Every structure is written in C-alpha cells, then in structure tokens.
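Handoff note, outgoing to incoming analyst
You'll be picking up this chain. Sequence as last confirmed:
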Amino acid sequence: MEALSSAEEQLMKHLWVLKRCFMRDLLEVLPEPKPAKTTVATLLRRMIDKKLVGYRTYGNSREYYPLVSKQVYFGRQLRGMVRDFFSASPTELASLLTGEAKLSREQLRELQRLIDEKLEEQ
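Most recent structure output, in case you need it:
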C-alpha cells in the first residue's frame, strides 16, 4: 500500500470521519486557510490512483469514500516503520516509546494491560 503524503493524510482523516462525502463537504470541514478546490481535487485524484479512495458518480458530482480503514492504513505504516527504523524489532520501538515518550504511570499501566490481553489471547 502506497503511503499518503502529509496533505493527503490530512484530507484522508476527514474522509475517515465523514465516511462518504462530496467535494463541498470536504471543503466545508477543512480548517482555515482552506485549500483551493483544485488542490483538493488533485489530492483526491492522487489518493484514487493509490487505491486508497474510491468514488461514485452522480451526474456531475462525485461522492468520495475511503477504500481502507484508518486502522488498516496506520497498522501497515507502523509495521513499515518498525521494519525500516527499528530493525524489524517491535521491542526496540516499545523501548523507545517507554523511554523517550515520557509516558505517565497511568499510560504505562494501560500499555501493560494491552500487552497482558494479547498474551492471554495467545
């Protein structure tokens, strides 16, 4: 799966929330300063080419929708990051996260709970 650029990712975040929308809906929810309609159209075209966004035509309008969920997309991105930056070792990522992210005691407990749940499943 091809990665989204930063601008595409910002647009995709809105698509994930809206689920299905027209260009006017996207332009409405984008923060100020709003990009030009042509810029949004270009981003959507690139995302369609990457097979991350689909559309349905109604007359002269297109209804856009994500072809991949947020969880699936970021899961794949995270696996790539672990492979490329952490020698394919999730443990190295966890070490960085717990050491450098300055997690609170409560956040560490929540991570422990998630790990314990995964251990129980296996």
